[in-house]
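re: ur question from yesterday

yeah so i grabbed the chain u mentioned. its 220 aa long if i counted rite. heres the sequnce exactly as i have it in my notes:
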Amino acid sequence: MQLNRINTPIYAGMTIAVPTKLAGATLMDFSPFPSQIKGSGEKVIFVDPNILAWGAYNTDGHLVRWGSASLGSNYCPDLGRRCHTRSGSFNVYAKGSANCKSTKFPLPYGGAPMPYCMYFHNGFALHGEPNGLPGDNASHGCVRLFESDAEWLSHDFVEAPDFNDHHKGTKVVIEPYGETNFQPTEKRHLDAIINKKSKENLETSQQEYLPWDATGNLDL
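ran it thru and got these structure tokens back, copy pasting raw so excuse formatting
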């Protein structure tokens, strides 16, 4: 369900996107992030609240994995305000185990599970979400991930500060809300259908945005 940015149970009447051409395809074929960027000599994780996704790049600028994300909500009722994730460039400064928990939420005593937490700015962290992602930005500011993705990041990609990296952990870049640098192919195609573009335009989109079906049939 990475394409739909959810891993909660589906229900009757729910609309989801399903690619029609899956033969030989992998999850990387549906990435909203470019497969290659200019390498900076350090690993970096890009997180974009506009496309609800993250992408992990190695030191050579190659995308090694991507996945779904849920960032800070436009409004948190318990706080009575917006609680967007802070945008900017940060470094992971601490990592926790599968038993990591919030010390603040739910108010007033905390205790919410944050498995494989990776703190990058004050109380903001990347972490797994045991209850699943809803397909929207719904957190108090942390970056919620599929639990399996958080485990992979924590164990196989993210490095905490140490002497070898000049006491800087893995870089995390949070894109600003409303200003994405990444254009997910599946979102553009869904937008074309929602906007009721002509069949001819969809056929043009198909040539540019494979593997979606040119007829607009998403097998929903």
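noticed a couple things. The first strand starts at residue 44 and ends at 48. also The chain has two domains: 1-30+184-220, 31-183.
anyway ttyl
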